[in-house]
Design goal:
This protein has about 350 residues and is α+β, with helices and mostly antiparallel strands. The protein has nine helices and 15 strands. The strands form three sheets. Strands 9-10-13-12-11-15-14 form a seven-stranded mixed beta barrel. A five-stranded mixed beta sheet has the order 1-5-6-7-8.
Length: about 350
């Protein structure tokens, strides 16, 4: 029997694949997309490592190759625990990342093959422990905290949908039979259009009360996401050892302004205190044009708030050192657009 917490994690992963649909990544779901690196075993996708095959639920490939780098692929893992995500989860991510990035050997006369730079992003609905954050920082694992107010609507619908699926499983699914996760994923990816339909596993499910209840729960889940069609999770890449999940209050407003001013100055504000603090970004030249919200890693917030009389000064230091330039990549038709948000304290009358 699938646990309620596991169902929440699966739904969060599929939601993130949808929210990140314009962020420059295409979803890889089948070995036909790369027979050398990927292996499909039944309805499970695995990536070849030097020492093992590694199961992956959400794998994305960046639409273009950064300068002086290799093509980038991203492992996306999501955890929806009631408590902060711990060290063991991050340590596992590092092990996977290390193994797949070492899966390359050269021999005389062998056919040249493509090589990729794999990255790992771990999303958590309730943040991360201090030990997990320190380990991730040391080993370049990106941690993304979704516990801020900007994502409360998403966390809410995931929780209620997981509960509905869990109850349907208890009432109607045969005891001892594995939960039909492949069918649920396929139905979600079809409805959300996050993967090519012809490459999705042909998962089927017999008619019955479970299917009726599960289809109703999935339909309601998709409907709520589509009601938030304007919702989009932009990934911001600052000059720092972490990435920023940027929630747009009006993504059309942001895009309209960013298209006209792809490189522009921004105002950055911090609201709240400690782990509850949330930051916002808005353009200096047109204050109401858009607002992006994000959270910083908890260990950074603890340092900012550690000494009350230094909090304002430390907030400014973080802005100047880590947030002075935030780059956002976004799909625009068949190409990728890059936007740069620049924070310059000297250009502002108020930090």
């Amino acid at each position: 029997m699938a646990k309620d917490s596991a169902l929440r994690g699966y739904l969060l992963e599929e939601s993130l694949a949808w929210l990140l649909r314009f962020s420059g990544y295409r979803l890889l779901v089948h070995e036909d997309q790369d027979p050398v690196e990927l292996v499909s075993t039944g309805d499970t996708l695995r990536v070849r490592g030097r020492g093992a095959l590694h199961q992956v639920d959400v794998l994305g490939e960046f639409a273009f190759t950064p300068a002086f780098s290799m093509p980038v692929r991203l492992f996306l893992e999501a955890k929806f625990y009631q408590t902060p995500c711990g060290l063991e989860i991050v340590r596992n991510g590092h092990g996977v990342l290390h193994d797949v990035n070492e899966n390359f050997m050269t021999h005389a006369g062998t056919r040249p093959r493509q090589r990729y730079q794999y990255s790992y992003a771990l999303f958590s609905a309730n943040g991360f422990t201090s030990e997990a954050q320190k380990y991730a920082l040391a080993h370049q694992i990106s941690l993304v905290d979704l516990s801020g107010a900007s994502f409360s609507w998403l966390i809410g619908i995931i929780g209620s949908t997981a509960w509905s699926l869990f109850q349907a499983q208890k009432q109607y699914w045969p005891d001892g039979e594995p939960f039909p996760l492949s069918w649920v994923r396929t139905e979600l990816r079809k409805a959300l259009e996050t993967a090519p339909v012809n490459l999705l596993p042909s998962a089927s499910l017999g008619e019955g009360k479970f299917k009726q209840a599960a289809e109703a729960a999935i339909a309601q889940f998709v409907a709520v996401l589509q009601q938030h069609n304007g919702a989009e999770l932009l990934l911001g890449f600052p000059s720092a050892p972490f990435i920023l999940p940027l929630a747009a209050d009006d993504h059309k407003g942001f895009l309209a302004y960013a298209e006209s001013m792809p490189d522009h100055a921004v105002r950055i504000r911090r609201r709240g205190h400690g782990a509850a603090a949330e930051w916002t970004v808005s353009p200096v030249a047109a204050e109401g044009a858009y607002e992006l919200a994000f959270k910083l890693p908890e260990h950074v917030e603890r340092w900012i708030s550690g000494i009350a009389e230094k909090e304002r000064r430390r907030t400014l230091e973080v802005k100047e050192q880590f947030l002075s330039a935030i780059t956002i990549y976004r799909m625009n038709g068949s190409g990728v657009r890059a936007y740069q948000l620049r924070y310059e304290a000297s250009s502002l009358s108020s930090a």
